[in-house]
Amino acid sequence: MESFWEYLQNLTDAQSIISRGGFYLLLIVVFAETGLFFGFFLPGDYLLFMAGLLCSAGKVDVTISTLVFSLIGAGVLGNFAGYWFGYRTGPVLFNRNDSLFFKKRYVTLASEFYNKYGGMALILGRFFPIVRTFAPIFAGVVKVGIKRFSLYNFIGSVTWVCTFTLSGFFLGKKFPQLKDYLQYIVLGLIVVTTIPLIVAYVRKKIIESKEKN
């Protein structure tokens, strides 16, 4: 059991994923986090940033262009996998029991986000943990047109990957010493990407409280 939790910790650590698993594990993690319902706990945003940062230091064995295009492809395919899963399971997904790798409230969060922003949720949702994983699944549940979904999927993946990966790469080129402060960078990115979810949760609770009163 101890080795399992150690493996799980390594799986959620961006530097460990890149240094131990290399380029291909990086793509698999991005694919899983952008469409497989059990991938919500994976480190999407800071994994991309770290990949760009480590690429600038020569610690990723591919060029930055290969890295970016491959990550975009993994993100697009991950969303298609999520869409297909949601399309096949439909409303049954909302009745699924909670488990270690599935929480019904995450589907509800993604559905509310999608209902608020429509197709743009597939672009904006890329920048929010949990929503990033479940938005394409919900799009499949409500059977969004495949052409429309494909367009938002591609734009969202390009925007998300380029924002974080290229930011990490160019900052790493300009400030090479950043690689010595990886723990602080990861912590900062986790805080920044988690704040919107906390705000949304608090706002929802306030609205529900007002409705009850």
Structural features, described:
This protein is mainly α. The protein has one domain. Helices cover 74% and strands 0% of the residues. It has nine helices and no strands. It has helices at residues 2-11, 14-33, 44-56, 64-89, 104-117, 121-124, 131-141, 146-174, 182-212. Helix 2 crosses helix 3 and helix 4 packs antiparallel against helix 8 (146-174). The protein is globular. The relative contact order is 0.14. The model is unreliable at 1-12 (pLDDT under 50).
Helical run tally = 9
- How many domains? The number is 1
Mass-distribution shape: globular
Major beta sheet, specifics?
none
SSE order? HHHHHHHHH
Strand content: under 5%
Count the E strands. Answer: 0
Structural classification: mainly alpha
Distance between the termini: 47 Å
Low-confidence spans: 1-12
Brief overview:
With 213 residues, this protein is mainly α. It has helices spanning 2-11, 14-33, 44-56, 64-89, 104-117, 121-124, 131-141, 146-174, 182-212. 39% of the residues are buried.
List keywords for this structure.
disordered N terminus, about 210 residues, mainly alpha, 9 helices
Topology overview:
Blueprint: H1 2-11, H2 14-33, H3 44-56, H4 64-89, H5 104-117, H6 121-124, H7 131-141, H8 146-174, H9 182-212
Helix pairs in contact: 2-3, 2-4, 3-8, 4-7, 4-8, 5-7
